[in-house]
Amino acid sequence: MKKLSLILFSISILFSFQKPLFSQDNLIHGIPIVLDGDTIKINNKKIRFSGIDTPESYYRGKKQACYLNEKKIFCGDIAKKKLKEKIKNNPVFCKTEKNKDFFKRLLGECFIDGESLSKFMVRNGYAFDFKKYSKNKYAKDEKYAKDNKLGFWTMNFEYPWVWRDKVRSNIIK
Hints:
By secondary structure, the protein is of the alpha+beta class. It is built from six helices and eleven strands. Helix 3 runs parallel beside helix 5. The model is unreliable at 2-23 (pLDDT under 50).
């Protein structure tokens, strides 16, 4: 019995020095407003899904287009619509990162009933693994969508980061 008490005491000491997995500072939850395929707003806080990227529904006055059978489609609007359909009117739980992005938005991963919205968007072909920031976190999901020709993988498109670079360089007018 004495040995068991000593073991339990030792374990409690170890856990008291552990950093908490979550702090209230980086948790946000509520019913979101969908701003884009990879950005939502909860309680007046903009949250950009870290590690993924979707076509732009509006960027510097322009909408990103994709082509399906030579028909021009605004793929940023499609990504935004798919995210809205997924969320419906459900509460979303987000775990945000310490740092913000260039536009001062919070970065994080958001969930509905434990399911990652980022993973959902990439796996269904409406978002891309943003390797520059994701460390390939969503690479398998992107491969799945591509192999199964889901979402944008049925269309001709430019990756959003390539398209934005062209807009910034005034290549797309």
